[in-house]
Amino acid sequence: MRIAKVRGTVVSTYKEPSLQGVKFLVVQFLDEAGQALQEYEVAADMVGAGVDEWVLISRGSQARHVRDCQERPVDAAVIAIIDTVNVENRSVYDKREHS
Amino acid sequence: MRIAKVRGTVVSTYKEPSLQGVKFLVVQFLDEAGQALQEYEVAADMVGAGVDEWVLISRGSQARHVRDCQERPVDAAVIAIIDTVNVENRSVYDKREHS
Amino acid sequence: MRIAKVRGTVVSTYKEPSLQGVKFLVVQFLDEAGQALQEYEVAADMVGAGVDEWVLISRGSQARHVRDCQERPVDAAVIAIIDTVNVENRSVYDKREHS
Amino acid sequence: MRIAKVRGTVVSTYKEPSLQGVKFLVVQFLDEAGQALQEYEVAADMVGAGVDEWVLISRGSQARHVRDCQERPVDAAVIAIIDTVNVENRSVYDKREHS
Amino acid sequence: MRIAKVRGTVVSTYKEPSLQGVKFLVVQFLDEAGQALQEYEVAADMVGAGVDEWVLISRGSQARHVRDCQERPVDAAVIAIIDTVNVENRSVYDKREHS
C-alpha cells in the first residue's frame, strides 16, 4: 500500500453503470517522511476520507476487495484513514495534531 | 485510476477473437493540474468517449470488470467520461467549459 | 495496452510444462508517434505476428485471457496485429504502407 | 518479490472492516548489495517482522495469498523474514550477524 | 515476461507456511542486447535454474500459474531457462556458447 494525502475530487455522470454511487478522490502520494511526491492517483473512496487527510491506498486488483467494489472496475481504493506513521521510532504523522 | 485525454484510435482486424467489436483509444495521461504527461496507453472503450474528452482509465485486471470485457485480454479501459476535476477546492477542469 | 514492434524471438526447451507450444517474441514499445522506446518485453504470441509488425500488447493477469493461455504463467501477450494508428486525426501508422 | 528493511509502522482505527487486526509496516526496498533505495511501501505483516529486519515483500494480488488475507484489500505483504542473501557466492546479508 | 540472469539466492526459515520448499533466486534483468540493468527481483524457482543462467521471469498474479504455486504468495517466478535470444535475425545469446 502507499501513504497519500487527499487533495480533491473527480465527478463523472457518464460512466460504467457499476460505478454509480462511488466517490472518486484525487490523492497525492507521500514519501516516508511525509513529503509530497509528484505522483497522483484517482482512488475510489468507500471509507469517507476528507480533503487533507492522510490515507492508505491499495492498488491493482486488490482494490476491489474493498466493500461493495467486488465487480467494479476500480484499480485504486482508499482502505484506511491514517492515525499515525512512525519511522525508526520517530513520529512522522499524528492525525490529532492535524485536526 | 488515472486521468487521461483521448488523443486517437488504434484499428486492428487481425486480433484475438474475443476482441471483436472492442474500440481501442489512444489516451495521454494528465497530471493533477491537467498538464499532459509523456505517458500513453491504449484503452478499450465501452463508454463511448470522443477525441479530446477527459476520461478515467482503470488498468490491470480490474479493466476487465467493464461491461462485456470479463473474458477479454484488455489491461486498460475507459471507465468514465469526466465532468469536473477539483483540487484543493479549485476547479482544474469542467467539461461544460470545453464543449 | 501498449503499442510495440516485434524485434525477435526467445527459444527455451527447459520450461514450465504448460508453456509447451507457446511462441515467445521480443517486442520493443513505441510511443504515440511511433518512436522506439528503450523498453522491451517478451510476450507470448498466439496471434502469429511477424518481425517488424506493429502489435498491441496486454500485460499482467489479463494476458492469460488470450486463447489457450488461461492456466499458463504468461504476464504479457500479443492480442492484436495493428492496421492503423491515428492521433489527432493524423495517421501515425498504416500497415499497408509497410508491407 | 523484493528485498526490504522494516523501518516503522502505520496505525489506523478508521478502516475497511476486513482490515481489523492487520499490522501495517513501513518498509524500505534494498538493492541486491543491501543498499537502501528511495522506495517505500506499506505492507501487511502476518509473519511478525520487527524493525530493522530484512524481509521479502510480495506485491499485487499475490499479496492476498498470505494467511488470513484472502478477502482483504492488501496489495503488499511480508511473506518471509530473510536469513541470508548471497549474490555471486558472496554473502550480502546474514541475519545472525545482525541480531 | 522479462529476460534475466540468475545472480544468487535468498534463504528464509521464518516464512509463510505455504512457502516451505520454495527456492528463491536473486535475478538481474537484462536488456534486449543482454546488457545488465540496475533492476533486481527475487523469483520463486520451480524450474531448477542455476547461477549465471539466462531465464524468463513472469511477474504479478501470473507467477502463481507455475506448478505448485497456485496458493502461494509469490509475485515473480522463473518460467523457463533460455536457450537462445535473437533480435533482428542476430543472435544475442546462445546457451551452448555459455556452458
Using the alpha-carbon principal axes, give the shape of chain A: elongated
Q: Give the class of chain A from helix and strand content and strand pairing.
A: mainly beta
CATH class of chain A: Mainly Beta
Largest sheet of chain A: 5 strands, mixed, barrel
**Count of beta strands of chain A:** 8
Largest interface pair: A-B, 33 and 31 residues
N-to-C SSE string of chain A, H for helix and E for strand: EEEEEEEE
Topology:
5 copies of one chain form a homopentamer.
Chain A: E1 2-11, E2 14-15, E3 23-30, E4 36-45, E5 54-59, E6 76-81, E7 84-87, E8 90-94
Parallel strand pairs in A: 4-6
Antiparallel strand pairs in A: 1-3, 1-5, 3-4, 5-6, 7-8
Verbal overview:
- The structure is a homopentamer of 99-residue chains.
- Chain A is an all-beta fold and 99 residues long.
- The first copy, chain A, has a single domain (2-98), classed as EutN/Ccml (OB fold (Dihydrolipoamide Acetyltransferase, E2P)).
- Chain A is built from no helices and 8 strands.
- In chain A, a hairpin with a 5-residue loop joins strand 3 and strand 4 (36-45).
- Chain A is elongated.
- Chains in contact: A-B, A-D, B-C, C-E, D-E.
- Chains A and B meet through strand 1, strand 2, strand 3 and strand 4 of A and strand 5, strand 6 and strand 7 of B.
